[in-house]
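Database export, one record per block. Field names are fixed; values are copied verbatim from the stored entry.
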Amino acid sequence: MEFRKCSIGGISYGLGTTEIGRAYRMRNNLPIPPEPIRPSDEPNTPYVNFVDPAMTAILKDKGHPKAQLVHDFFLSLALNHEVMPEESNGEIILSASNPDEAALVYAAKHCGRSFYKRIRSDDGGEELTLDIECEDVTFTLLHNLEFSSERKRSSVIVRMIDGSIMLFCKGADNIILDLLSKDAKINDPKLIETTKTHLLEYVNDGLRTLLVAQTIIPQDKYDEWSKRMHDADVALKNRQEERFKVMAEIEQDLTLVGATAIEDKLQDGVGDAISSLRLGGVKVWMLTGDKVGTAENIGFSCELITKEMLSLRFVGDEKGQISEISNTSLSGLESLSQLHSIKEKNNKISQHLKDLLAEVQEVIKLNPQREACLIVDTDALTALEMGMEQDNEGKELGALFISLSNLVKSVICARVSPKQKARVVKMVRNASPRTVTLSIGDGANDVPMIQTAHVGIGIYGLEGRQAVNASDYAIGQFRFLKTLLLFMEDGIIEDVLY
């Protein structure tokens, strides 16, 4: 994981591109920017590959018009986390359960906001000490509203050195955008649109993105909320649901600060391994929490999908794609999230799946050698799962989706939660009892699907050993999967989900 780019106040910082970005530009005949040269006087910070003279100039000039925005952005990254500092040979090492979070905290350090101490305060809270431009500043952490796959965001409530109370929040853009204040004086609509454009650029580079936001909390509002939070913390029934409900009450009317972009580099040999599996007749599904665009670009990079494939899209709130056969628009899932009736949603999903199924059948009929891929997002998948719970319509929807997935060579499911990953594996198992499934992953969020598949494989990675401990087999790198499967009986594995 490496911090590569960020957007602050409507300006994108961070030069160069990634391997995935270069591949994207080559596929689309776009110019490839040159790789920047790191200045000799810039620090070499772990988890950070960020070069931009414009940012360097702002950090060196406290009177710069963008200085306060940049300070707020990196201060938020330095405070909103669960990283633990450890001293080793006189050096502070930041230990994080999530490498993404470590990259963000190290990025703040790289830009002059270095978190290095976390201690318990006298009132039972925590104190976080930062080195801000060679000056120690201590903040009081009042509440840590932790990240979860359901919330898709994390927040901290901090008492600042002037006594004011601030909430710092970071999370998925589709979540944070809904939490922003609708007041145009607080969040300029042009700034929001510009930030969205930057997010799209980062997605094309295959970068993982988060939005960063904040708000000031009046003391009286905090006091009232804090009591409700305490009651939720000690609730005997539905504690987690009550806690999340109260957390959401305070995470409102936020001010957009910026966006982060982190590169998750592919291991060596991933593309060759996946290509070999596909040639061997194994159907490969990629189940990821990344955005649809990011997931697609990673899919191209690791040879899961190619430009020659027929790409079928089962994506919520998206217009229907153009048919290769009739050159007319197929039915889509536009306005899916605005439909409140389950029957209306089921009818829309059913028609869309039938159109996609007919499209791929006709294309394969004309060219039996043509391969296809299916792109799915969490909104469409969630609506499908809700529809499948219905007695009669549910069976038809499930059958249509499985029939479609059986005709494609690769499937990408984007923005899915760990529980959804497991449900997808279970869906495949139930639909094809004779099919043997294999799940492979390297993080705690992969554990549910690893345990649901017939065969589970964990990879020793940067995200701890939860996946390894929950698996049947453990390997050091993804590319070893090719060797592992070649030693198995021919044809025993028919679906690989990762």
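Remark 1: DSSP finds 17 helices and 19 strands in the chain.
Remark 2: The two ends are 18 Å apart (CA to CA).
End of record.
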